[in-house]
């Protein structure tokens, strides 16, 4: 959905499967306390690169030892380290300094004067396999396992002045692991070798006296050099080397799982309190698919800092740093449900629906959702993704202008996930919606089948955030993530939707190099509220079906591919007709669905690519704007009867069927 006018272990049924168990067992302990004993920490910017502060990024220079965290580290930014807003001044580092590492989806950032990626042999997005070559100029090594990590590298196409090098993991880094990075053999367009930055060159000299300002940094890098040496990377010829720690699962997801566990413990065996505010019964002439629209509200414990949790709220944090409910504070979550005509013959399958970018629950009334309900007997219910809903537009704009305000987006979004979890509970609890006359026929027969459980279907932002809901839900075991991806730090530059928000970012952070740093800092907080922070465990006991629109103008395919590799989704093949993909090896690193052609019936997580004939997206970090990129296919999959059939079978049985007859999945553009 496009942005419009933006500038104006729990009680009850928390089941012991997948991430729900991992979180209940491990993610609620220990809390990331803000009052732990101080440890020695660096001050100022890492001297090795001799350029802007926070480069290279991410970098353990900006962490400190902390025995109370799962990683043994804690982020330790000062206000002087972080970009300052041109409108609001210095950034408050508090939200980042709760974390015990960096984002699992973080791009590596640095500037290399004169760098020519082709002359240097950097692995482009079209040839990810090259990143693992023995002589690759960029080497990323997991210090825990010794494994090389795949990536692709690009220069920031939005900034011809700084030409920032962006190195994106092709699969998310593992939670809690530490990674060593080596950069070597870089060349200019003429083929001339690019020498190491002077400070790093002195560190490589191995003769620094203890009194030298770089001596301590040299000692810290010795374990990095040893790790790299075991992978065949010698110090001679290095341009730069450093390491960084990825945040632990507890750090990434602990806020949301703690409010989930607390809220469901308070709920106990009861159903969430709800009120039906309206019931509308359209005639068959008015709507051939939907016989009843039910609207109302649900009461949810609110863990936000203001009564009722309005936009602009952040978490109210207790003495141990985790969110805490203010006495009696409740969130009133509006909902809307669409009940199909088929439910009068057979009780329907309950499903949660997730709306698109800065939209609302009313998207559940879109024609494609009503068609899915009518064709396959689903009752779809939706609540607003508060934090990223229509009422949050001004808050989102302000957060782009001022990083200090960014927790107002991500923390309220986590409350929005909890609201959806409570809506899901009312859909499956016999004492919930099933007990209301609004969800029964005139003679008292149920229109919902609570025994079938509840499933999830969402599109665009509903796919990006929906992975979080599936990962932490005690009730949802299967979900469809439509035209989806993860990691907003990759998506924003590549989305036509971001054009409406770019002026806000430009106002706060006009320097384009600084903007790339801002994206990565935002991602460290986004991880708590979008799929990127939950991806490693998303398919532990849960199944997801990813529908991708080839050449999508709004949600970049490259980020969907990263998600598929990270969660272990299998790929429908052939994914595309010959010649459609610009990649040397299309869909590198994503295993195909088993079985020859259309004979597969796979029980697991999968990705299906739908091709409407749109040209491939740009190979740069820019949006596919302009006539050369043709029709935007973003709306096409959800409007396809074949897609809806595949989704319905998957959601009700857990089986992925081939609806494309063993061929690439194609669909004409939706009208």
Instruction: Classify the beta-strand content into a percent band.
Output: 15-25%
Instruction: Give the N-terminus to C-terminus distance in angstroms.
Output: 16 Å
**What is the residue-averaged pLDDT?**
93
Total number of strands:
21
Largest sheet: 11 strands, mixed
Number of helices: 16
Q: Specify the structural class.
A: alpha/beta
Instruction: Point out poorly predicted stretches.
Output: 1-39
General form: globular
Q: What percentage of residues falls in helices of 4 or more residues?
A: 10-25%
How much is the radius of gyration in Å?
25 Å
Structure in words:
With 671 residues, the chain is α/β, with parallel strands linked by helices. Among the domains are: 40-67 and 71-247, no CATH class; 460-487 and 530-671, no CATH class. Helices cover 24% and strands 17% of the residues. It contains 16 helices and 21 strands. The chain has helices at 18-27, 117-120, 198-203, 215-230, 249-267, 367-376, 393-401, 407-428, 461-464, 466-472, 488-491, 502-508, 512-526, 535-538, 557-567, 641-653, and strands spanning 63-65, 73-75, 108-110, 138-142, 151-155, 165-169, 178-184, 238-245, 274-280, 290-301, 330-340, 349-354, 378-383, 454-459, 476-482, 543-549, 570-571, 601-603, 606-611, 655-657, 665-666. The strands form five sheets. Strands 9, 10, 11, 12, 13, 14, 15, 16, 17, 19 and 21 form an eleven-stranded mixed beta sheet that branches. Helix 6 links the parallel strand 12 and strand 13. The two termini are 16 Å apart.
